[in-house]
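Training component of the fellowship. As part of building independent skills, the fellow (R.M.) carried out the full modelling exercise for a liganded target. The chosen ligand was adenosine-5'-triphosphate. The inputs are recorded below so that the supervisory panel can assess the work.
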Amino acid sequence: MTTNTIQAVRGMNDVLPEAGAAWDHLESTVFDCLRRYGYRPIRMPLVERTELFVRSIGEVTDIVEKEMYTFTDRLNGDSLTLRPEGTASCVRAVLEHNLLYAGPQRLYYSGPMFRHERPQKGRYRQFHQIGVEALGFAGPDIDAELIVMCARIWAALGLTEVSLELNTLGDLEARLRHRSRLIDYLQRHRSDLDDDAHRRLASNPLRVLDSKNPALQGLIEAAPRLTDDLDDAARTHFDAVQAILRDAGIAFRINPRLVRGLDYYNRTVFEWITGKLGAQSAVCAGGRYDGLMTQLGGKSAPACGFALGVERLIDLLEADGAHVPHRAPDLYVVHQGDGAERWAWRICERLRDQGLRVVLHCGGGNFKTQLRKADASGARFALVLGEDEAAAGKVSLKALRHAMQQVLVDVDEVPGLVNAHHGRIGAMGNTLRPHEE
Ligand code: ATP
Ligand code: MG
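Fellow's submitted model of the complex:
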């Protein structure tokens, strides 16, 4: 009898060990940058009440209209949703635990998000974001800090092909003025709109500007601009953000068409885009969302944040040929005979104490098979423990990736010898796919 094997759900991917090294590298590099600015980690559940996303993201958005994984809790009938983004959950957590009582908060989180989109390169149904939120800060300085921090992240990752697009959505009154001008304009061009745009014309006209339909791009380009309606406070805020960015030497392009796909943004919005990933060009998006706290029933507080798209950044690391340290083992320990095996266990632990990555051969076999495994492991050295070595109280160190005479040494000499070769071999092995060279 045969049974079909079970496959992963469409649009939800495994990250296999080969790619895992780049993921680890990306996360640790980004987290390190964020900590340097005083951001602290927070973790929220993957599942929230559906109402949270409807109220924060907005009813008339792609996400809420058609992308959420929503289900009913079978016991109590509650409507629950797999989180499509992190900001709403983060703000909920901050309000629920009254974190702003202790003053403004700089926070970050990381993890999977779920959106029922059409899967394609750079667009998945489970994807990952690293999210950053600065809550309780009203000034343009924090908007700029978020952007400066992004620039540091790109530099730390060795990414060169990302550029910054900036816009302001103004404040409520300006948005209302703009909204009515926009509705007039769209009504005049009714016959050119697609179905989505028709619906949004009535419910949420700003979203029409967010359409990805190529046929609408000319119309969108000529639409009334929000920047023409700005009031003084929002304009001053936006000018100040730009001034800090200029001082920091960060290039940007003002894109008056940049409106984010979520309802809660106001004032500064930004995206980092790349020309190297085809249609899915945004690797990071964010902005200010001063109204969200009250929208979620909390005390009013200003806030802004951004989210990095991890899959797209991983693709970009590869497309950009960025340096990804590969974490092959330093040593693979082979052994023959009972005494040697028991000794091998102790030696491995001792070398791990000293910071080396050490794989102990498991599963027996003769030296030849074991050394073949050593080679396949990608390790730079094999440590050979046989009867000769056991009798001499020494170990044989054999280079697997470069020419070097096999040497019989004391265990404590091993870290020095391995590290002496680190720079040279490390540079050679630093690719996304260590085994392809
Ligand atoms: P897009 O316009 O590409 O749909 P979005 O405006 O819906 O993006 P945000 O909600 O701002 O995206 O999410 C921030 C970042 O997360 C995006 O810039 C992108 O890098 C990434 N991202 C969003 N949706 C997906 C997805 N379905 N698959 C992979 N990455 C995604
Ligand atoms: Mg989207």
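The panel noted the following from the submitted structure. The longest strand covers residues 105-114. Residues 178 and 228 are 8 Å apart (CA to CA).
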